[in-house]
Structure formats: C-alpha cells, structure tokens
Design goal:
Distance between the termini: 137 Å
Strand content: 15-25%
Number of helices: 20
Strand order of the largest sheet: 4-3-7-6-5
Oligomer: single chain
Number of strands: 17
Radius of gyration: 53 Å
C-alpha cells in the first residue's frame, strides 16, 4: 500500500496485490527435502562435514566423522569445534593447512592416514559458495584402507611372483602367438647358454624348439605338452635332455604360452650308469655270501640270489620266485611283526626269527629288510639280506644260561656277605654288654635318614654294612675300660678312641665298596675339625660318615650306659640341634629330626 501525494496533498491510497503460492506447503516441502538430505548424509559410511572458512569450526557433520576421527579422549564432537579441539597439536596444524590450501587454490584431494586408528581416507575438499561468497569448506571423506591394503598385497604378490620366476631353478620362457620369445628367466638362459639379447624377440623355433620351424604343434595343432621328454637346443649346437611343459596364460588381456623345462641330462647320465651297474650288481648278488631277496607289494618273491636257494635248500629259482614270502617263516606271527615294524620305521635291522628249509627243518636267521622305492619315491616292494645265525643263537643260549647261574650265585654271595656282616656285628656286642644292639639300632636310624635324603638302594646297602660294624674295633679294647661304671681317665679315653682305627682295619680287609671302610674311619669326625682320629673338616668327611655320626650320637644318648642312665630322645634331639652346622651336617640333622618326630620312628 502506498500513499498518493500531490504536492503534500493526500489524494488517496494505492493498494497492490500479488498472488503467492501456499507458504505453508512450500515450507513443508523444503523441510522434507532437508530431512531427506540429512537422512542420506547419515546413512552413508563415508564422512561428510562442513567447516567455517574463518576459524574452521564445524558447521555440519555426520556420524561417520565421529567414528573415524576419535581422538582417544572422552569428547563429544559438537558444532563449532576446530581441529585444535579435536586433534593433538601436530595433527591440528596439518588439518588447518589443508583447509587453508582449499581457500587458496580451490578444490583439493588427498589420501590421508588418520593419527588414531591408522585408517587411510581419501579426502575431497571444496569451497561452498553462495552468490560468489565462500560460506564454508565441505569435506567428503571415503575410507580406502581395504583398497589400499588390497593394492599393496597385489603389488607384493606380483613382486613375489616375478621374483619366484626369476629365481626359479626351472627354465621358464614366455612365447606369444607369433612364436616370438617375450621373456626368459636366468635359469632358461643358463640352460641354453645364451644371453638375454640373443633370446628376447627371437623365434622360439630358432632358439630351443625342436619342432619344424613352419609349424608349432601347440599353437597350430593345439597339442598339450605336460612333463614330456624333449631335446633342448643350446648355444654352439649342443643339445641336452629336458622335461618340458607348456601352458597357456593370459597377461594384460593377451594370450601367451609359458614354457617350462628342467635339465635331466644328469638323470640320463645316472640312468645309463645304473643300467651299467645292474650288470655288476647281478654279479655281486650271485657271489654274495648272504641270502638276498626282493618282493613286490603283495609279498611275492621277485628276485632271489643263489645263496638264498642253498640256504633254504631249494633246487632252482623257479621254486621260489613267484612264491609268497610267508612260506619261509616257521611262525606266521614273526612275519606279521616284521611287517608292522617295517611300516612303522621304514627299515628293520637284525630281526631274528626261525625260518623253514625246503625239507621242513627250522633254523635261526637274522634279517635286514627295507622298502624298495621307484624314482618318484613310491614304495614298490621290499628287499633284504638273510644270514644264518643258528650257531650264534646257540652261543647266546649258553651265555644266557651262564648268566642265570651267575645271578643265582651272586645272590647267594650277597646273602652270605649280609650274614657275615651281621655275625661280625654280634661278635663286637658280645664283649660290650652295655652296648649290645647299639650297632643294629644305629644302622636302622642311619638308613632311615639316608632314605629320606634320597639314597639309592645300593648306597643304602653299603651304609647298612658300615653301620652294622662301625664299632667292631671295640673287641680290641679291654673290657674293664668298656664297662667301667665311673669316669674314665684321659689315658683310658685315648685307648677307647683307638677302636675307630681298629674298626677301619677290620673293614678294609673285607672286599667292601670303598665307602664302607671310609664311613667307619670317619664316623667320629666333626665338621669343625674337632673329631678324631684324623681331625677332618667339612666336605673332607663323606656324607655316609656324617649320617653315621648323627645316628651314633642319638642312639648313644638314648641308651643306658655303665656310667649313666638313658638321657632320653628329647635330650638327644637337643644335642644335635645345638651343634647343627658346627659339628653335625645341617641337612643330616634336619633329616634326623624329621624321621624321629614325623615318621613314627621306633628302635624296635
């Protein structure tokens, strides 16, 4: 509406009407389009965001941005946040530089590895303009990590494949449809004795193919070549034997042929030498002093030498060749056992069993058997040597019988020795009435201690013998000193101590193991060197003597003596505890304490 003025005079009011669409409907449509765009942006896995062109703060972003740019901090991404708010300083500077680059040069694209989750993104930066004015920078980010990894893996695979071809010991050449050589690996050039420039671009029929130059059996006739034996032309007109294979391949959309070949000249040489040696082997088999045989997989004889015929009493080869091997075994179980061992170990040496002669008599043999394999390593049968060991088995039976007799005799001697030791022990006790049974009780405690320390059965026997006669020398001590009820003089003490040397002299005259005499000689020695008769210190005293010393003291203190009554087990335990480490071995003392207190030990 407008006033109509005429020289400041109001003449009337002009009203103008313009029809417009339904504003409410239009707003709804616009809102629907906005919602559709927003849903589309949120549904994609790719990142989409827009930043302010001044401070680079977020104007708009989808949820994918949050997923890919987590910073590791407890942070909710919101509008207005800048790179400095979201990323560590060193990465924030990088992002600000990228935004600035868009403003200076327009659209910008880069592959970028995120700092936190190490994902690779393809980022596309663009200016957002309205009426020529930049109102923001839009970024579209696509995760290309898997694609990059695939490309890298493919690149690595191609590189490895190329390396494998170049380093293969098999000769490899690539030939096109025009029969020209495109590529050759070093092994092929070595076999052909030609350089690369003498091969690449040449016709294969001029270099190594033995087919007629005017016709290729593979390209022209479609024939297949797979592990076929051929001749390979080499430099200087030389030819070598090869095994050749040809396969069609496709490279960059082009159909080509890959020809591979292996030099078998050495194998051919070996085959020739083998054929030559077969004649020699035949002569060897005929003169071999052991029976030789070969069988097929069914166990049927295929080769028999003359010695086998004579050993088993057959007249001619025809009587054995073609026959099953089990006809020569006296017991079928022996053959089954042999086969089981052969399958398990691959070969069997010195397998002894009874076999049958042609007349039905039996004899002992020793067999060495192994599998026979072809060139491919496949088992095709067995071979073996057989030797008559009847005389050896007879000698072994005699030896076994003699060994059994010796074992019985040895057991008797051991029993006699044990009885003798017990008898000697009792002789000493007959003179010293107050110490009757002392040696037997010491032996029981000493063996219990040694057993807890892990002594072997044989070492326990030796300790037992030593303990049972450790005081046998007392038979040389006058009875009035041994049985004196009161205190004995210094001279009598010296006389009494001589029983150790006397006991040692008796023990060393008997064919005991050396430990028996030594433990008797040392059983009054002490760790601090105050013992007798030699004053040995520490490790100079053998373990058996250290055990015997503790057992001897404990038993003496718990027994009645002419000059005193029993002091009791508690006093004995206190005594060895007081001198543990100084006079007595700590390990032995601890073992004795454990035996007496925890094992229900009894002198009876």
């Amino acid at each position: 509406m407008k006033n109509l003025l005429d020289t400041e005079r109001l003449n009337g009011i002009l009203e103008t009407y313009i029809r417009i669409p339904d504003l409410e409907s239009t707003n709804r449509q616009v809102q629907e389009e906005i919602e559709k765009s927003r849903a589309l942006i949120e549904s994609t896995d790719d990142m989409i965001w827009v930043v302010d062109p001044v401070n680079f703060g977020l104007i708009m972003f989808n949820s994918s941005l949050i997923h890919y740019f987590k910073t590791g901090r407890s942070l909710d991404i919101t509008r207005g946040m800048t790179p400095s708010d979201l990323l560590p300083p060193e990465y924030a500077i990088v992002w600000e530089h990228m935004y600035e680059k868009v403003l200076s040069q327009g659209a910008y694209r880069i592959d970028y590895e995120t700092s936190v989750n190490k994902r690779i993104l393809n980022l596309s930066f663009n200016e957002v303009k309205i009426s020529g004015e930049t109102i923001g920078i839009s970024v579209f980010g696509q995760d290309i990590t898997e694609r990059k990894l695939t490309e890298k893996a493919l690149e690595t695979a191609n590189r490895n494949f190329d390396t494998a071809l170049k380093n293969s010991l098999i000769g490899i050449v690539i030939v096109d449809k025009n029969k020209k050589i495109r590529w050759s690996n070093p092994s092929a050039m070595t076999m052909m004795q030609l350089k690369e420039n003498e091969i690449i671009g040449k016709f294969c029929t001029d270099i190594f193919c033995t087919a007629a130059p005017e016709k290729c059996p593979i390209l022209d006739d479609g024939l297949k070549v797979d592990n076929s034996e051929r001749m390979l032309k080499c430099g200087g007109g030389k030819e070598i034997f090869i095994i050749k294979s040809v396969s069609p391949i496709e490279m960059n959309g082009e159909e080509l042929l890959m020809e591979t070949f292996v030099d078998i000249s050495e194998r051919k040489k070996i085959e020739y030498e083998l054929r030559t040696s077969l004649t020699q082997n035949k002569r060897i088999l005929e003169n071999l002093q052991d029976a030789y045989f070969q069988t097929d997989l069914h166990g049927t004889f295929t080769v028999i030498n003359p010695k086998a015929l004579s050993l088993y009493g057959f007249v001619s080869l025809d009587t054995l060749v073609g026959q099953p091997a089990d006809i020569l075994f006296a017991d079928s179980e022996d053959m089954k056992k042999l086969i089981r061992r052969l399958r398990h170990d691959g070969s069997v040496n010195d397998y002894n069993c009874k076999t049958l002669r042609a007349d039905g008599t039996t004899f002992w043999v020793s067999m060495n058997v192994q599998f026979v394999k072809n060139e491919e390593g496949k088992i095709i049968g067995t071979e073996g040597l057989v030797r008559d060991i009847s005389d050896r088995m007879e000698y072994e039976n005699e030896i076994r019988n003699n060994r059994d007799n010796l074992r019985v005799l040895n057991e008797r001697l051991e029993k006699m020795l044990e009885q003798s030791v017990h008898a000697i022990s009792k002789i000493g006790e007959l003179k010293d009435l107050y110490t009757a049974g002392h040696q037997r009780r010491v032996e029981k405690l000493a063996c219990a201690i040694a057993k807890s320390l892990g002594f072997s059965p044989l070492d326990l026997v030796n300790l037992s013998f030593g303990a049972l006669i450790h005081d046998i020398g007392k038979v040389y001590i006058p009875s009035d000193i041994l049985n004196k009820p009161g205190k004995i003089t210094d001279l009598e003490v010296q006389i009494l101590q001589t029983h150790v040397e006397q006991s040692y002299n008796v023990a060393k005259e008997i064919d005991f193991p050396w430990q028996v005499a030594e433990m008797i000689h040392q059983h009054h020695e002490r760790l601090d060197g105050t013992g007798y008769p030699l004053g040995l210190p520490g490790d100079d005293i053998i373990l058996e003597a250290r055990i015997l010393a503790v057992a001897d003291v404990v038993e003496s203190m718990t027994s009645h003596r002419p000059y005193r009554a029993s002091l009791g087990i508690e006093a004995a335990m206190q005594e060895i505890e007081n001198f543990k480490g100084s006079k007595f071995d700590p390990l032995v003392v601890d073992a004795c304490m454990k035996v007496v207190t925890e094992k229900d030990f009894s002198w009876d």
